[in-house]
Each structure stands twice: as C-alpha cells, then as structure tokens.
DNA sequence: TTGACATATTCCTAAATAGGAATATATATT
DNA sequence: AATATATATTCCTATTTAGGAATATGTCAA
C-alpha cells in the first residue's frame, strides 16, 4: 500500500476534536503554558503535549521557552489553507441564487419527473 | 481507551486528501457518476466508492440512483461547519492591525527583552 | 435468461494514531 | 547537590483506516 502520509497536514491536524479544543484555548492569541491547557481541558499532560506537538508540526501553533515553561501560541496563519479551501463553497449556503443554485434546482426538477430516486431504506447509519 | 469516534465528522471527512480530490471533481455542482470520478481521479473504483461513502456519511455529498448509475452531487452546506469554525481565525492574516495583532506584537517585544527564547536546535522534522 | 456494465461490499493487511503508564529531560528552588 | 516542577518522549495497545483483491449486488441490453 502506498498511503502517502499526510500527518503534518493542517487538515489532518484539525480533524482531531481534542486538537480543535486546544486551538479554542489558544484562540485568544495569548501565549499559554502547557499546564494551563492541561488544567482547562481536563486531559492528561502527555496527551496535551502530543497534541501540541502535532499542531506545531502542522504550523498551527508556535512555542517559546520561558523558564521551565513552554509557552504555546496560536499561529492563525497556519489555518489559512483551510479557510482558502473551504471558502470556495461558501456560495452554496449564502442566499444569493447563483448559477450553482439554479442548476441544482433545475436538476432536482428533472429528477422528480424521472421518479428513479426510489424509497431506498437501506442501513443509513 | 475511550477514543470517541468521529468518523462521520466533516472535519475528518475532508482530512483525507483523496476525498478533497473527490470534492474538487464535484465542485461544479453537477451530479457525477462514480465511473466518471474513477476516470478523472485515476483511482480504483472500490476506493472511490468507499470515499464517496465516507463523504455521504459526513453529509458532504448526496446520491441519487439513475438507472445503473449512482449520481453523486456535492452538498456544499455540509462544509459549512468547517467554514464557520475557521473563519473565526481570518483576522489573523488579514492586514488590519487589530487587538490580536497588537497583543502579539507587544508580547514579542517582551519576550525579546527577556532573552529566554534560546537557540533550541532540536530535531525539528 | 444470459451477459455486460456499474457500483458496493467484504475480507485482508499495513500503517497510522490516541491515549495510558512510565520515564526522561530541563529548569527552578532550596 | 538534592528536590520539586514543567514538559516531552518512549513504550505499549486497542482502534481506525486506506487501499488491494475478490466478490456480491443491481441494472440494462440482447
């Protein structure tokens, strides 16, 4: 199998819910010590350190040593690729009726008059 | 271990690069048959079907049967949570010097005058 | 019905990964 | 030096997962 690794990818970094929690803690733009994050997240210290490491590799946070502490700070720019990627689809939910929307509606009508979207009560989980 | 599953999460769905490729193919808002995606992505059909299944569970695509084909269409709204989440950080890279930025700059100066951000040439990978 | 085609599913395996426990490392304090 | 504190790392394991191969399912066409 090939499975070219995408560990350091920002998209993978933010896929993990606990890491989004870490980001939420750092969202104020201030530098925070690991212990503070540990306390706020009620999570074991090694786990937090690992998540911070992953976020750092992905370029989402930066570290600075300060005495015996390591101060982590959000690097918002690291999230920019995600924003750039997803904002393209913004027009799907804004209410302006643009070409995408008109096309979808037209197709929906076609589908209705064609009837082939049957019941389909499979395991939907 | 707890590890509460987040498979059906949109963030996890788009973390996989091939799935973002699938989304790119569907980005025109039109319905596409699986085989077309297979052809465009140069990827094995079962793999594509699995990715489509994952995207469907995450609510990012919809399916409609049409004869022997299954037509997949992007459901842009499924990506909305990602956009809502990430847009909060947009101010980090826009050039307006807001409070976040001033704070970061102030802190940076403090750090410089404190000197404790030493060399630190560890394995950075 | 038979066969061609489109798609999904199952089984398998190698790799990734979160988190726990224990330990290592670094720094501060006495 | 000895100890406490802060953080990282290593080892372990259970779980997830991408993709390949084979197969099953569903639908159309002759």
**Unreliably modeled segments of chain A:** 115-125
Oligomer designation: homodimer
Helix content of chain A: 40-55%
Question: What is the number of E strands of chain A?
Answer: 3
The rough form of chain A would be described as: elongated
The largest beta-sheet of chain A arranges its strands as 1-3-2
Largest beta-sheet characterization of chain A: 3 strands, antiparallel
Q: Give the rounded overall mean pLDDT of chain A.
A: 84
Separation, N- and C-terminal Cα atoms of chain A: 28 Å
Topology of chain A as a string of helices (H) and strands (E): HHEHHEEHH
Relative strand content of chain A? 5-15%
Largest interface in this structure: A-B, 48 and 48 residues
Rg from alpha-carbon coordinates of chain A: 22 Å
> What would you call the structural class of chain A?
mainly alpha
Total of DSSP H or I helical runs spanning 4+ residues of chain A: 6
Task: Report on this structure.
With 125 residues, chain A is mainly α. Chain A is built from six helices and three strands; from the N terminus they run ααβααββαα. Chain A has helices at 10-13, 17-26, 34-41, 45-57, 80-87, 99-114; strands at 32-33, 61-66, 69-74. In chain A, strands 1-3-2 form a three-stranded antiparallel beta sheet. The longest helix of chain A is centred in the last third of the chain and has 16 residues, at 99-114. The first copy, chain A, is elongated. Residues 115-125 of chain A have low confidence and may be disordered. Chains A and B meet through strand 2, helix 5 and helix 6 of A and strand 2, helix 5 and helix 6 of B. The first copy, chain A, binds a DNA duplex (30 and 30 nucleotides) through residues 1-3, 5, 7, 16, 18, 33-35, 43-53, 65, 67-70.
């Amino acid at each position: 199998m090939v499975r070219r690794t995408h560990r350091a990818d920002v998209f993978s970094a933010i896929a993990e819910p606990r890491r989004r929690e870490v980001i939420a803690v750092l969202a104020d733009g201030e530098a925070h010590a690991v212990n503070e994050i540990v306390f706020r997240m009620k999570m074991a210290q090694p786990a937090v350190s690992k998540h911070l490491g992953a976020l750092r590799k992905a370029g989402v946070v930066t570290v600075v040593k300060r005495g015996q502490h390591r101060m982590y700070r959000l690097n918002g720019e690291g999230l920019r690729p995600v924003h750039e990627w997803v904002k393209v689809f913004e027009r799907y939910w804004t209410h302006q009726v643009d070409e995408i929307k008109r096309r979808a509606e037209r197709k929906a009508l076609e589908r209705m008059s064609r009837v082939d979207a049957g019941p389909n009560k499979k395991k939907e989980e």
